[in-house]
């Protein structure tokens, strides 16, 4: 065993369990060496020359014996995992030969991978579930809805999708701030919704105040309508907490699929949400079943193409900015540009009200170019006023990224015209876009990164997370979704998620931004978990150029 001495000497310096077995006939494995950690595990005073299968329980040996046979017969390392009551172990078996006695030996190295498996399970959970409520998220709902569509085609059965918006929840949240009461109301509301239907269903959280209820294999549309009425009635009942009474209501949009025609997951989601918006606009605390006429009504209210094009021509769009603060240096790290529309008849519109129509009509492309050029032009002005080493952050739509060369050339053109260095431009792309288009986006992100442009992922961790984004794409920054700061009842879980994401980012040498900082408690939580790049109304809400400039001038410590 002269050439095994090195293994033995090395083994006593490892944190892993190391055992060497001599291989004999009839697949018997004799202990010939254990390092200190392995000896403690087997709790044997003198295990040397004892046989492995005589020591292990029969049930355990039955599960792992084939791995030892495989390691000997194939002469290749074999790895297997054992799940114990409170731990998970990974064992690697390697066949080694002794030049002295000509016998075969098995080197078994066992390491505790409990933490790794726990993190893996947690990340897997976050890919498919809402971290606050543990309900399925939109990503998982889409998968289940796709299966329901196939099921309806095969069985000619009816699928119903309800989009439930809880009216009044945000008002309670704004009034009470971040309290356990808000969490309790949310949990109780979910319980009431779940209790309104007993058949095959999936309730998913698809927004801060929005839920989607998927009901499959029903025989008639009235079943979903009855469910919607029951939900509305249940949420009308007062909510009691800490001797106070709270009132909520709901707006519900319903759409159906009977398998007779082709449709898509996105189409059904859009139909249910559009029906819900019709309820909110006209009735509230009611339900509406989707009809094709609704889309025409929406388009009639705002001449989508004409209004946006006219607004571009007449310069009715404007930008507001919100700083990202580096709490280590008390400096402004970046300024995020946020587009607004000064509509001549409706008033000020925010992106949620016009970005989707702009994407559908393709007008997001000229609008996006205008936003980028305007933001870069303003950054140059601030730089001339003494705001140095600051980035400008601009949100990017998936439609803009579809034509890779056009988008890349546009970015190059704007940088050249405004004189902004690529390193000072940060393009922010939502996590959902990455998840749906990761292969196509890899090309454009690589090109932009090579140019020097920074790439940021927005709303990270909201439930769709894929580690592949961080593993394969040249990302510079991740922005942790603000929902992790809002729910106090799950504070420990939220801190764990924030800590997990920020730790992963640090290991990958990425910057982490937490958005939505609104008060001292959230600031303290973020700093406690090691996050120092922060954004939110606690510092400054989205504001005009003049207001941001005034803020910069007042906060002179940040601009020096």
UniProtKB/TrEMBL annotation:
Pfam family of the protein (one): GGDEF
Domain GGDEF: 157-292
InterPro entries: Cyclic-di-GMP_PDE-like, EAL_dom, EAL_sf, GGDEF_dom, Nucleotide_cyclase, Rev_trsase/Diguanyl_cyclase
Domain EAL: 301-556
PROSITE patterns, sorted: EAL, GGDEF
Top-level lineage group: Bacteria
Record-linked Gene3D superfamilies: 3.30.70.270, EAL domain, PAS domain
Molecular-function GO term, any one: cyclic-guanylate-specific phosphodiesterase activity
SUPFAM superfamilies: EAL domain-like, Nucleotide cyclase
The protein's name: Diguanylate cyclase
Organism (species): Alkalicoccus saliphilus
């Amino acid at each position: 065993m002269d050439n095994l001495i090195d293994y033995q000497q090395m083994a006593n310096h490892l944190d892993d369990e190391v055992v060497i077995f001599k291989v004999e006939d009839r697949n018997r494995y004799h202990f010939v060496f254990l390092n200190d950690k392995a000896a403690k595990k087997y709790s044997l005073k003198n295990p040397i020359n004892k046989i492995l299968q005589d020591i292990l329980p029969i049930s355990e040996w039955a599960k792992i014996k084939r791995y030892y046979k495989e390691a000997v017969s194939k002469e290749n390392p074999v790895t297997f995992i054992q799940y114990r009551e409170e731990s998970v172990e990974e064992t690697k078996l390697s066949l080694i030969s002794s030049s002295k006695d000509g016998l075969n030996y098995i080197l078994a190295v066992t390491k505790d991978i409990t933490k790794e498996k726990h993190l893996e399970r947690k990340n897997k959970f976050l890919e498919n579930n809402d971290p606050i409520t543990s309900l399925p998220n939109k990503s998982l709902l889409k998968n289940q809805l796709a299966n329901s569509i196939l099921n309806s085609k095969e069985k000619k059965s009816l699928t119903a999708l309800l989009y439930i918006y809880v009216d009044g929840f945000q008002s309670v949240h704004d009034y009470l701030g971040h309290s356990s009461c808000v969490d309790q109301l949310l949990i109780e509301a979910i319980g009431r919704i779940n209790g309104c239907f007993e058949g095959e269903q999936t309730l998913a959280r698809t927004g801060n105040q929005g839920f989607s209820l998927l009901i499959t294999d029903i025989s008639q549309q009235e079943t979903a309508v009855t469910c919607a009425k029951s939900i509305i009635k249940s949420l009308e009942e007062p909510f009691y907490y800490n001797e106070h009474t709270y009132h909520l209501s709901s707006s519900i949009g319903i759409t159906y699929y009977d398998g007779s025609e082709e449709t898509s997951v996105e189409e059904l989601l859009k139909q249910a949400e559009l029906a819900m918006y019709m309820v909110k606009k006209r009735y509230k605390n009611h339900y509406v079943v989707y009809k094709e006429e609704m889309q025409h009504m929406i388009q009639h209210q705002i001449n989508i193409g004409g209004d946006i094009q006219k607004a571009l021509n007449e310069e009715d769009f404007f930008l507001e900015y919100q700083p990202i603060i580096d709490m280590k240096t008390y400096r402004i790290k970046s300024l995020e540009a946020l587009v607004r529309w000064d509509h001549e008849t409706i008033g000020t519109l925010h992106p949620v009200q016009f970005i989707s129509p702009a994407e559908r009509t393709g007008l997001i492309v000229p609008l996006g170019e205008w936003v980028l050029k305007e933001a870069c032009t303003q950054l140059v002005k601030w730089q001339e006023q003494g705001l140095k080493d600051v980035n400008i952050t601009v949100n990017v739509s998936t439609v803009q990224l579809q034509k890779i060369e056009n988008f890349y050339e546009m970015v190059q053109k704007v940088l050249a015209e405004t004189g902004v260095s690529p390193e000072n431009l940060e393009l922010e792309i939502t996590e959902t876009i990455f998840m749906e288009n990761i292969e196509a986006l890899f090309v454009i992100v690589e090109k932009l990164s090579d140019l020097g442009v920074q790439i940021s992922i927005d709303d990270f961790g909201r439930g769709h997370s894929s580690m592949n984004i961080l593993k394969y794409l040249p990302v510079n920054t991740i922005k942790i979704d603000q929902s992790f700061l809002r729910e106090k009842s799950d504070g420990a879980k939220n801190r764990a998620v924030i800590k997990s994401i920020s730790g992963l980012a640090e290991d990958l040498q990425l910057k982490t931004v937490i958005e939505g900082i609104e008060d001292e408690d959230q600031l303290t939580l973020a700093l406690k978990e090691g996050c120092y790049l922060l954004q939110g109304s606690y510092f400054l809400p989205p504001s005009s150029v003049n207001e941001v400039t005034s803020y910069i001038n007042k906060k002179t410590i940040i601009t020096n």
